[in-house]
Write a structure and sequence with these properties.
The structure is a homodimer of 405-residue chains.
Chain A: E1 3-8, H1 16-31, E2 35-40, H2 46-57, H3 63-87, E3 92-95, E4 102-104, E5 113-116, H4 119-126, E6 130-134, E7 137-139, E8 145-147, H5 152-163, E9 168-173, E10 194-196, H6 197-205, H7 213-222, E11 226-230, E12 238-241, E13 254-258, E14 261-270, H8 275-285, E15 290-297, E16 302-310, H9 314-328, E17 332-336, E18 339-345, H10 355-365, E19 370-376, E20 379-385, H11 389-399
Parallel strand pairs in A: 1-2, 1-9, 2-6, 3-6, 9-11, 10-12
Antiparallel strand pairs in A: 4-5, 7-8, 11-12, 13-18, 14-16, 14-17, 15-16, 18-20, 19-20
Helix pairs in contact in A: 1-3, 2-3, 5-7, 6-7, 8-9, 10-11
């Protein structure tokens, strides 16, 4: 008999009927003799409606009050779910963030969980109750309601699982697991049985929107096994676990694609100490996040400095860069927003030489030119021209044998 | 400089635009240098929508969870109001029931306030903040969310006013005060400048739906002056105050009408000890509230026993009464549901003989037959045929000179 945390997203609880379907799934687990703790998001659309209302009330809504407003979304869902379970003659009790002792810092609208007092949850479990907890919300040390930011319910679920030492944390969503790549781009995409926390972190930050990235970091820190699966069918999904869990490691587990970046190159800037700082300090001051940075040596005391930013920051970054080039005596700013970043990810590549070689040859075989390269311990990313993006994903998927797992 | 509690009902905060109008009224008081604490209801219609959802989720929604759900209504309003005030550059902070330390008993959906810890409210006031508190909700000693039942926001406001020793509690509603009678029935109805707690209690329980009755009891107990007024205009409303407040007492302050009762008469039942108990015990067991009870003596060891119940309980009461008559050997049950109860109310009648006489003569002057009479210290009620109800109100309004105050 296990202690299981189940988290259901907004789509899964998007109507009274869907709430009842989820309730059936919950009691199925409960009837198998397991202890079940459920974490819920707001019904889909509700959070957006609340934000719209807030913006009708105030151009820049006060963040503390925004959290008071937003937290009603999850409050509604947990009450309806607990009622539904009672209606099905199962014992259930809802807990709001403050009732479940989910203590956060005081950063309204993007709070971080500091601690979870597991006592009340455990007491309810010992009474054989199904505990239904509001995701996304907590309370700060001064008793203010806080929310964790978009997707925060995943983090709530994993943090609660860690606090009560759950055997597993099931994240139910509208996809049925983590895929080797986006099935809309590559029809041979396969669902992974397992993936490591680190791979999942790379996948999430690169745009696979299955799990909220912060929740994966939490799961890694507390070694909480996550089971990502669909709330619309009974199939096994993907386990997100530690590398030391005895899983058979694929060299490469997934291919991701990010078309949201733009590239800026500062041509022929002086190759002197302090130049990089002159470029990136004003960008940071403007709140612009820089992803890849590459600097090539040129002859003659000059260098080319290239970096990528999110497309939404592109125009602003361009203005800042042009100013900097003028001030430090560079030649010009070259820009491109028709680029794509394709990445291969896998903990296995740590122990396997040749992953980079395989990647570059595969891209070359289709005459895809590589504009930039960056690597981490378990990831290699190439910036290419946007028009080759989907082709690159498919050719890499094949090259790393992901078509056949 | 006064400490003022203002309570706005659901209609007054029924849209973002109306919330902004109320905000303007709040800051007007604040700008005069007063400390302002605001208690809000849910936006009109919201509570009903939540109840509908609850009944879709469960035929008999769990009461604890119903309170979790219902309390989101006021939570939404206070957040939007605080945002609106921030948007107008006024300092404001919202407080939920648990944050304002509104401790109640554990009777979900109809909890009673046990105590209010005024500290947090007072701290915010000392910071010159406008404090916006969710009405209708509290928390029990085990940390469960509770609600106070329909109209509970009035009670919240008065209880908060008592706890923080406010100078006055303004109840803003969609009527502009307490009238001598229903203006829809008697066009000469006048707005009262003042009314005593006891008169207001009689008025409220007899169907004048201006103030929630429990809030008036609270106000009387803690001697909180209530100012009932409209949120749609600037006029002075009606002060509800203690009798010792130096107010000039009218002999009769108001005429009320209740058409929601039905009458049952048990004819020729044995005039013996224990008979009344045999009649009213099964009614009480069925949860039927009995209002007036009258017993007339007949000759021959028999008596007629007449009582009134709410029309919604009429059929059930009739079945019970017929059973009882069969068991105790009475003759028959006579019923009438085309009756009306008209009452005159006034603390002044304690010191003035002849109020009953004036009432009976006035009714007689229009040939209105009185079917039953009951009295309290400050009220005389007559049951008459329903078809004379409005006429009776008008003739009494005139007889007690209420047309001219």
């Amino acid at each position: 008999m296990a202690l299981i945390v189940q988290k259901y997203g907004g789509t899964s609880v998007g109507s009274i009927e869907r709430i009842r379907n989820v309730a059936k799934r919950i009691v199925k687990t409960y009837d198998q003799g397991h202890d079940v703790v459920v974490v819920l998001s707001a019904m889909s659309g509700v959070t957006d409606n609340l934000i719209t209302m807030a913006h009708q009330a105030s151009k820049v809504p006060d963040k503390r009050e925004l959290d008071v407003l937003m937290s009603t979304g999850e409050q509604t869902t947990i009450a309806l779910m607990a009622m539904t379970l009672h209606d099905m003659n199962y014992p259930a009790a809802s807990l709001l963030g403050f009732q479940a002792d989910i203590l956060t810092d005081n950063m309204a609208t993007k709070a971080r969980i500091m601690s979870i007092g597991a006592d009340r949850i455990k007491t309810l479990i010992s009474e054989k109750k199904i505990v239904i907890i509001a995701g996304f919300q907590g309370i700060d040390s001064e008793g203010n309601i806080t929310t964790l930011g978009r997707g925060g319910s995943d983090t709530s679920a994993v943090a609660i699982a860690a606090a009560i030492k759950a055997d597993t944390c099931e994240i139910y969503t509208d996809v049925d697991g983590v895929y080797t790549t986006d099935p809309r781009i590559c029809e041979k995409a396969r669902k992974l049985k397992q993936i490591s926390y680190d791979e999942m972190l790379e996948m999430a930050s690169l745009g696979a929107k299955v799990l909220q990235i912060r929740s994966v970091g939490f799961a890694k820190k507390f070694n909480v096994p996550i089971h990502v699966r669909s709330s619309f069918n009974e199939e096994e999904g993907t386990m997100v676990v530690g590398e030391d869990s005895g899983m058979e490691q694929l060299v490469v587990s997934g291919i991701t694609l990010d078309k949201n970046e733009a590239r800026l190159t500062l041509r022929k800037v002086p190759d002197q100490p302090g130049v990089s700082s002159k470029v990136f300090t004003p960008l940071a001051d403007a709140g612009i996040q820089v992803d890849m940075i590459i600097q090539n040596t040129r002859s003659g005391g000059e260098t080319d400095l290239t970096f990528t930013v999110n497309k939404s920051d592109f125009e602003q970054a361009k203005r800042i860069a042009e100013n900097v080039v003028k001030n430090i005596g560079g030649e010009e700013v070259m820009v491109a927003d028709d680029i794509a970043k394709v990445s291969v990810i896998g903990v296995g590549m740590k122990n396997h030489a040749g992953v980079a070689a395989t990647m570059f040859s595969a891209l070359a075989s289709e005459n895809i030119n590589i504009r930039m390269i960056s690597t981490s311990e378990i990831r290699i990313s190439c910036v290419i021209d946007e028009r080759y993006a989907e082709l690159a994903v498919r050719v890499l998927h094949k090259a790393f044998n992901l078509d056949k797992i």
